[in-house]
Amino acid sequence: MAESSDVNNLAHATTFVWHEVYGASSSASTDFYTQALDWGVTEMPMGDSYTYKMFTVGGTPVAGCLGTTEHPELNDVPAHWATYIGVDDVDARTEKCVALGASVLVPAMDIPTVGRMCLIQDPQGATFWLFKGDSA
């Protein structure tokens, strides 16, 4: 069993670097989580296409929010929380995952000023994003 000091440090792990909620409406998600958890919201312009919403705690971004009906390419995506795992090299780790039986659901892509990411499905069906930030 973990000691209490270990449990208190769990939230400070660096491997799981980001989380994102996908709901039908980003406004409904932000309304719920800001009221239920006293989170704040900030927005980050993503070019001409849209503005990305981020939940904040004490002014620090802690998670993202996407509305699936606001993005036609996400219309069939059910509501869920996604997790991003920080890695040293997205492409090399993707190859390793595939060699171990994983599938690539969204090929590696670069998000300007943010980083590189790829959506993986492990051999048992669980999904996660591999991520390396621009500054990492």
Structure description:
With 136 residues, this protein is of the alpha+beta class. Helices cover 21% and strands 43% of the residues. The protein is built from three helices and eight strands. It has helices at residues 4-9, 26-37, 90-99; strands at residues 16-23, 40-45, 51-57, 60-67, 80-86, 103-111, 115-121, 127-133. It has an eight-stranded mixed beta sheet. Strand 7 and strand 8 form a beta hairpin. The longest helix has 12 residues, at 26-37. Residues 1-8 have low confidence and may be disordered.
Write the SSE topology.
Layout: H1 4-9, E1 16-23, H2 26-37, E2 40-45, E3 51-57, E4 60-67, E5 80-86, H3 90-99, E6 103-111, E7 115-121, E8 127-133
Parallel strand pairs: 1-4, 5-8
Antiparallel strand pairs: 1-5, 2-3, 3-4, 6-7, 7-8
